[in-house]
Amino acid sequence: MTKEFYIFMLINGLSQGMLLFIIASGLTLVFGVLRVINFAHGSIYMIGAFLAYSVSTLLTGGSLFSFLVLLLIVPPMIAILGFFLETSLFRRVYRQEHLVQLLLTYALVLILDDLVRVVWGGDPRSVARPDLLAGSIEILGLDLPTYNVFILVVGPLIAMGLWLLLYRTRAGNVIRAAVSYPDTLGALGVNVSWVMTSTFMLGCWLAGFGGVLTAGLANIDLGIGMEKIIECFAVVVIGGLGSIGGALLGSLIIGIGVTYFQLPLGRWALVFPYALMALVLIVRPWGLFGKPER
Amino acid sequence: MAETSRSSNGRNWIVGLLVIAVLFVLPFVLGQMGRTGEYWIWVTTEMIIMGLFAMSLNLILGYGGMVSFGHAAFFGVGAYTVALLMKKAGWPLYLALVAAPVVAAFVAAIIGWFCVRLLGLYFAILTLAFSQLLFMIVFQWRELTGGDDGLHGIPRPEALGPVSYYLLCLIIFLLCFWVMRMIVNSSFGLSIRTTRENLERAKFIGINVRRYQWLNFIIAGAFAGLAGGLLTELNRFAQTDFLHWSRSAEPVLASLVGGMYSLVGPAIGSAVLIFLKIILQQLHKSMVEVWAIVLGLILLAVVLFAPDGLVGLYQKFFRKSES
Question: pTM above 0.80?
């Protein structure tokens, strides 16, 4: 094992982690504002991936332009799906007990996952990477897969964008206020239900964005939604539910950990997130960045 | 829990005994009806088994007030215990059926130890995650579990025909029902209900909440394992599908449809759902494709409009007619 090899693995793991972060940040953001943990987040992500496949069949494959088109139009389509889900279903259960909220999003998982199966069938699909991102790129004397490097650039951009949005804009102030003092916010004349709807749409946009990126990275099949939601859960358990910074850290730990453990453990590396989750739960049940209130 | 007057209590007993009598006579009637009859014996056996599975989950869901999305884990552990012991170790059925709940309880003890440390949302997340972990282990461990193919050709004792297996399942179901009834009405069961109603108060009056919930989780896991073992012997195979997350949805749904604040409600809900599935199958073959969508829509409707389920409707109906 050379040093180059480990750097190669690190890049691989980091890009996996970044992809996971894009999806998990949507989950944790929605939880922070809506106080509902959306089990259907993985299904929404999966719809994004399959939608990317469908749209890509309409475009010329392999060109950078068509891939950018995918990244531009599929996530907003998923956000619109989110708009309908939030206004027709989620809105009804905010003031109800957790049980009802959990079961509602669980019902959505059943419906959405099966809808994907009915619409797209069970065969694995993939989206052709644009030629520009398909090969490998030489950085510091290492041949790295360009697509992973691309994710590695896009991921931090998204993280930065989220940070700027939340901490440097008025919209972000309102969202953060909605996390802490929703009632006061309403009394100050802000339309809180619109804040919730748009936060949910943003969460779905992130899931859709992750879906498009995944479709270009690997084969997509009916299992990816459940697989990803569990990884997202591991992320939020490790990082603390509702914390974006925690989600970033948790995603990177899981991405790098799974990649590295694949060497000695092979397919059993998938157990790593669970082991880590169990460990965090014993030591710090509220997560590394969460608050110990719940 | 709603107070039930003595007259309605007596009526419940009569209805219950009548239903049991009908259930005992049923296979002999169906046995006269040729192939359709045999098919329906098989279906009702499955209803009984899945009813037991649903009731076991409801110990956690209805009585404990905790949402578990990973109950299929214990169902699957029981199923694979029976499959492995009978097929690979050559154990007789009755010993394998004793082992299934024991192994399932053991696994539930490990998983539950982590899960009950967290409540509400986190509990639901963790149960789902751990069941998915078990699913992956069974899926990957080809040498032992056969992976995707599952384990087929579980031996069936000579003496057990469809009718006698039905009766065996029915007797086991009734025994389990009786035991669960005792558990639910014991001081342990009352304490569990207290933790559901008011966690702080339960702690305050000296209930060791975590230990009680852990024990409850183990008991529920054991019953689920038994149900899994019974289904394996009925189908004569065990497959990864038994541990799949969507399998965990079935008892949750059955509890909601049947009503989760009664012991027998989930079993009724489960039977109703299986019946519905078969009706849909008869209507059109492609309806099986959309079965999960149908389940999801039912779940949505129940959650949004009738959280107390069928038994709630029954109680409402009779309370109205009495007053």
Answer: yes
